[in-house]
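User: Teach me something about this protein's shape.
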Amino acid sequence: MGCSSSVSSEQKKHRTSNIQPSCNTKGTIVVYGMIESVATQRVLATLIEKGLKYELKVVNIMTGENQSRSYLEKQPFGGVPALDDADGFTIYESRAICRYLEKKYKGKGTELIPKSNAQVEGLFEQAASIELSYFDPYASTIVGERVYKKMRGGEPDMNKVAGQRQDLAENLDVYEQILSTQSYLGGNTFTLADLFHLPLGSMLAKCGEGELFESRPHVKQWWNKISSRQAWKTIQAMHEIQ
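Assistant: First, the predicted structure itself:
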């Protein structure tokens, strides 16, 4: 997949900090974001799967760097990440960035969007829509309550967590049915639709919600496969040393 298993070498190659978001390094793919951001992790995992060299320029949303004039010129909504491609093209929104990278750098590293025919592509888009509609909203709320609210000094609303957990559990029951007949969410090959689950799925596992995966045999098998990919291990290692 074009990436080293060495954390220190990955850091030296890919990470930088305290650089103004207005800087633009021509000839280099530049990601503006934070390794703590699940959306940034999505993009970094895609870059590593594709075997692409990049530079991470830290935009600290906790200190308001994402509201600076220079950053808002790249991402007018102030979210992270944004990406400058090597040719100077700028794009934001993590899933859009991932799709762009796959199409722009088709043939490099892991193929993340199958292109054999309309049916295969349609099943990929269906799987990607499943993640966006039936996983992300519920996982985001649970993680927001159990992790990010605590980081801000608040107490999680466990009633809200319970409701979202129940809804997500019902959706994962459908995942279990889908994954009983195929290896991945969009078919029998790993795609962006699977990768998109990794950041929030890992946060769920770390904040005490791992049973959502563990209690469903086919979901568990799928989760273990996608979360053990070397690209994701590299992202996790980068995150852990922060």
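Now, about its shape. Residues 1-24 have pLDDT under 50 and may be disordered. The chain is about 55% helix and 5% strand. If you'd like, I can walk through any region in more detail.
User: That's plenty for now, thanks!
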